[in-house]
Write a sequence for this structure.
C-alpha cells in the first residue's frame, strides 16, 4: 500500500495598501479657505490627485474622509 502525504499550502495574507492622508495639505488649504464653494471642493480634489492622492480622492470613502476632516477642522470666526 502506498503512503500518501497531505500537503497543506501556506495561507498568504493579502498585502495591506496604505494610503497616506494629506493632513498637511488640508490644513494649509483650510488656512486660505475659511469657507468654500462646490467649485473650491472640486478644485481641491483635483489638486490632491495631482499631488499623488488619487487613490484617496477617487473613492467615495476617501472623499468623505477628506470632507469630514475639513468640516471638523475648519475655524469659525
Amino acid at each position: 500500500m502506498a503512503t500518501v502525504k497531505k500537503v497543506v499550502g501556506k495561507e498568504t495574507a493579502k498585502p495591506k495598501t496604505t494610503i497616506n492622508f494629506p493632513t498637511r495639505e488640508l490644513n494649509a488649504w483650510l488656512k486660505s479657505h475659511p469657507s468654500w464653494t462646490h467649485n473650491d471642493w472640486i478644485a481641491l480634489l483635483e489638486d490632491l490627485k495631482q499631488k499623488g492622492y488619487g487613490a484617496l480622492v477617487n473613492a467615495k470613502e476617501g472623499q468623505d474622509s477628506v470632507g469630514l476632516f475639513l468640516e471638523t477642522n475648519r475655524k469659525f470666526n
